[in-house]
Structures are given as C-alpha cells and as structure tokens.
Amino acid sequence: KKLGVALVGLGYYSTDLLGPALQMTQHCELRGIVTGSPEKIPVWQEKYGIKDTNIYNYDNFDQIANNKDIDVVYVVLPPSMHAEYTIRAAKAGKHVWCEKPMAPTVAECESMIKACKDNNVKLAIGYRCQHDPNIQAYMKAAKEKTFGKVKMITSAAGYFDGRTDHWKQNKALGGGVMGDMGVYALQGARLATGEEPISVLAQTFTTRPEIYHEVEETAMFQLEFPSGARASCHTSFGINMNYLNINYEKGWIRMKPHSSYNGNNGEMSNGTIINFPIENQQATQMDDDALSLINGTDLLVPGEEGLRDIRVVEAVYKSAKNNELIKI
Ligand code: NAD
Fold first, then answer.
1. What is the end-to-end Cα distance of the chain in Å, rounded?
2. Which of 37, 176, 200, 255 is close enough to 244 for a disulfide, judged by CB 3.0 to 4.6 Å?
3. pLDDT tens figures, 279-322
4. Within a domain: residue 295?
C-alpha cells in the first residue's frame, strides 16, 4: 500500500525537493496539490499526473475530507500558516506532515498537537536530518556515551540569502533566521546531547538593516544542558556556515556539514569516519513517516519534537530582547 500525499504550498521546497523526492519513495505517492496559484496547476498536473479531483485551493481545501485518495497533507507554507493548515487538515481527518519551523509560537504548536490528537491523526515535522544515518551516528554517541559526557558544542547553520522581498524577512509570515536556519543549529546541540536546554543567553543582530528590519538576520545563542554540557550556536542569513563540533570528556566528533540535503559527514576522535550513503534525504524521511503510519508505529519526529525547538526559539527571542539569561 502506498499513502497518497497532498502538498500544500508549491514554492521552492515543494517544487525543487519534495515533488521530485516523492517520485523516489516506495510508500508514498504524490496524489494531490493545494495551491493559491492557478498557473501552477497545469505544470504540476503534466509533471506528476495529478487528477483534476485532487486539486484544491486555500478556500475549498477543507473538502479534502471527502477525498479517499489523500492520506497525508504535507504543509509546506510560510511558518505563520503552519498552524492553520495543520489544524484544518486534522479536522479533515488527514495525517499531517508539517515543515519546520513547526510554527512561530509555542501556543500554536500546542494547538496543532491537540488538533491532531482530537481528530485521531498523526503529526510529523519535516526534520529530514533526523532520518539521515549520518546525523543518527552522533545521536547514537549521545545515547551510548561512546566518548563519555558532552562538555562543549559549537553548532552553526547559515547561508547567504540575497533575496530582498521574501517571507523570511517578514515577521507576520513567521520569518527570521532563528526559526529558519536557527533550528538546525539548535537541533545540532539538542541531538548531540540528547537533552533539553535549561537556559539560554542570546543576541540577535543584522548587518543589512535595509532588508532585515522586521526580523533578525543573525542570531548567536548559548545553551546550558542539565548534564552541564554547554553549546554555542550560530545562525545567519548573511553567512555560509554549516558545522557541528561536539567535544566530550574522552574525545570529539566533527560534522561538516551537519544539516545539508546531502553530504552530511564527519569524523570521530577514535578514527571512525561518518559518511553513510543516503540516496535522497526527503524520500527517506517521507518513507520512514509513511511506514510509521502504515504500521501504526511511533513517528521518528512527531509534533512534540517540533514544539521542543520552538520553546527554545521563544527563549532566544526573549533573551535577545531583554539582554538576559532565560531559564527554560
Ligand atoms: P517559498 O516562499 O518558496 O514557498 C512558499 C509557498 O507558500 C509559495 O508557493 C507561496 O505561493 C505560498 N504562499 C501562500 N501564502 C503565502 C503568503 N501569504 N506569503 C508567501 N507565500 C505564500 O518557501 P519555501 O522555501 O518553499 O518554504 C516553505 C516551508 O518549507 C517553510 O516552512 C520552510 O521553512 C520549509 N523549508 C524546509 C526545508 C527543509 O530542508 N526541511 C527547506 C526549505 C524550506
């Protein structure tokens, strides 16, 4: 059995990554689209053979409840729209896959989790890296304490974004680097320790105020974990950077890159090379999640995991605004 997936929002990520990746999955089939841009419909229909009856816009989307072809709705919209479309999909009785960041606020994340529970559907967040064996390698080191306790982490995720008019620069649409790339820097630290931070000290700033005046271009945040581990995390829309250095009591792991679509790799202080082949991260993610739904097993990255990040994101903003240490 294959699960029928409908993509909501046909922007960059759906067009360039998820649409093609769905063709590589074994347990999913791209059967529907939800779009506010009618000109995209013939292009997607021609490319993927989508039936007329499986095409929706943002107004008639709720009618997807009556469509047996669609098992999963994948929300790939700007972050401020994630809660609304997740909740509407849940009410339509569809499982939901939602892109990161889960939503701009903890309150929205909680309402998304509740809506899915209330409607007896599952919610997964699109943290593709957690499905990548190269990332799982350092998650395993945290669990098995291969090199003892984690002492200090440096985690960075950023790229130079040259665009000047995009939702990533718009506060109302859920922009800002912290939710966008910052969650990768944060995931690096959280997954490397296997713990949740207990305090945050953060700064945000911009070098291009003409573009980044509503939201931050760059954020730097320090995390303290219950075990005593500390992390220094950096994220930016102005700097290309992608690495994770984990220093343990008895060794180290270096990943570079650690949050790319492909090619995540690294090295351990004992000489072990981390370089597992993975054909397509998004296809792996969607097949993992489809199998969990088919078999009724736990999702690798449920809504609760998206929420954990947003708790820290909120604390980062509060810390930066008040210039104070925030306890979580
Ligand atoms: P995008 O701007 O390219 O696409 C957004 C889509 O939403 C467009 O089709 C646009 O038409 C539609 N939309 C509907 N209402 C809109 C509005 N009011 N303003 C702007 N767009 C509106 O963005 P994207 O890069 O495809 O990102 C979409 C989501 O996917 C985001 O949550 C983003 O963080 C996530 N994403 C995840 C990854 C990943 O690696 N997991 C990579 C890229 C993007």
1. 43
2. 255
3. 999 999 999 999 999 999 999 999 999 999 999 999 999 999 99
4. no
- Say yes or no: 207 and 71 in one domain: no
Whether 300 is in a domain gets the answer no
Q: Kindly list the protein residues whose Cβ atom lies closer than 6 A to any atom of ligand 1.
A: 9-13, 36-37, 76-79, 99-100, 126, 128, 167, 173, 180
Of 80, 109, 125, the position where a domain reaches its end is 125
Which pLDDT belongs to residue 55? 98
Atom of ligand 1 nearest to the CA of 75: 29
Q: Given 56, 184, 212, 248, which residue is catalytic?
A: 184
101 shares its domain with 141: no
The pLDDT tens digits of the residues spanning 236-284 come to 999 999 999 999 999 999 999 999 999 999 999 999 999 999 999 999 9
**Would the ipTM clear 0.90, i.e. be above it?**
yes
The order of strands in the sheet holding 95-98 is 55-56, 28-34, 3-8, 72-75, 95-98, 123-125
Extract the tokens encoding 33: 């689209």
Residue 187 three-state SS: helix
